[in-house]
Structure prediction request, 612 residues.
Amino acid sequence: MTDPFGMGVFALSGELRNLGPYRLLGQLATGGMGVVYLGRDPGSGRIAAVKTLLAPGGVSEEARKRFNREVKLAHRVTSSYTARVLDSDVDAGRPWMAMEYVPAPSLEALVVQKGPLADPRAVRWIASGVVRALAELHDKGIVHRDVKPLNILLCSDGPKVIDFGISHASDLTSTKLTLGTIAFAAPEQAQGHPSTPASDIYALGVTLYYVACGKLPYPETSEPLQQLNYVRQAAIDLDGLPTGLDEVVGNCLAARPDDRLTAEQLVRRFESGTSRTLSAGWTSLVAQYAEEGRRLQRAADQAEAETVTRSWTVGPSGTRHLTEEDRQDGVRKSGRPDPDVPGLKPETGPQSATANGQGAGRQSPDSKSTPPVTAPGGSTPPSTGPSEPTPRRGGWKSEYLYALLGVAALVVSLVINFHGNHSNNSPDPSRTPHTSSPGTAGDSGSDDSGGVENSPKPTPPSPEDKAFASISIDDCLDNYNNPDGAWSPKTPHPASCTGTGSYYRVMSIVHDSHNCSDTYDYHWSHDNDDGTTTAFCLNRNFRVAQCEFADKEDVLYRNQITPCDGHIPDKYKYIVRITGVYSNKDDCGDQEHWQINGRGTVLCGKEIQKAS
Prediction:
């Protein structure tokens, strides 16, 4: 059996279990003002990162206003290189915002676990996506303020920038600020000046250096105040930076904000000299996260989703939440991880979790062969060994009380186990039997049903059923609905969301197409051989060079996609090729444009073929 794979999800604590329609599965991250949970909407099956305020004494009016401002900012961002807002309710008793959950490792986790990315072309590919995200943020008047490896997740089709617009430059003077945040700040931020788009560019430069070299471009230190002093002075040393990155990273790290390139300029600088080929270690870790994400998306119901996340979760104290499978896979029954089992201890280094729970310093199963990497603000990666125990307060009386409680718990456990193991074989109707999935621990392969008649074998899935089952929420498809109303190809086929041939993004997967609300652009329903239904709720994924039909009223049919040289049916007037996807019609200049209702998206287009 393979070692458990940690996704940076922590076990829930406290009484909160629901936010809006979302049932909470675990905790992803906690900040000074808010907390981010992993949630699932039982109605639609949608998985989301759900943020709310930390409000033990109730939500103040000022806190609600700040949260509302953050939600409005997030709604304005539509880049495919950022985590999108799915839903929100700022007027709820506990205001919340649901964002796209991205099952991908952060750049921080990749560097610490797998080493720096030696190929400058691969670094440029990552940079090209990040600068596109920053370009949109800056164009809409949003400054990220906290660009760093921990806030950039890497998927197979490119990076995703998270946590935009929620930090403030004044926070840099706080003694609670971690070394991991100071290290990626700009000199003007460290001096207490307001953050500007140029501050994000400086932070990007530090991030790219760290990804390529596995260390910071500053003298090594473990003291936050010394690090802050280095940042204020812009005391950088770009020694070791590969050719192909030195000039552009150096421009990003100019001491004066006015001397730095803008995000738009960097988009053009990173258009060439890129490669999507990552190192084997990076590719493997990205694939592992993606597969675990698909495993969660495939969960048929809430119980199955909880089973999946329970295999990831770590407790509030830093100890991984244990399952029966874990105990049979090298975890002691005392609840303490076996030190020989890797991957069970969460990171303890700076900024231990991202908004999606991707840790920076988790020890991976194969990390013993990875050279040491300098973590931000320190000379070595965070330790994954047992942390020192925190001394209890209250002297010997408290220790005595803890000992008594421990003995009592042991006695209760022995009594329960005795009765559970030595009672008669009659099933207890008040208990739900535990079932193990094929191939998991606890599945002995023997028939221990006690003579109970076997249930009928399920209908095996057809190839079409398997094709639909392989699709996850947030996948993009190269399928489109032709003028005859049939899907082409007939079965779903995933495609890179940044490619011209990706026409739809799967927003939700339900068991009845009627559950796809009118807010979606389209739905695609399939009847499985076992009598169930799989339905995709879809939104158009607009990309430059895609072609669509327009009619005699100059209406663009966004769901009537066509090959650019295709035949034009009688009901349409011409074929339009998309030449730009923007949020403002002025960006189209003199070109024709169409406003996409409810999206804040404007398509620029050009007539390329007219009906005869």
About this structure: The first strand starts at residue 18 and ends at 19. The radius of gyration is 26 Å. The mean pLDDT is 75. The chain has 14 helices and 20 strands.
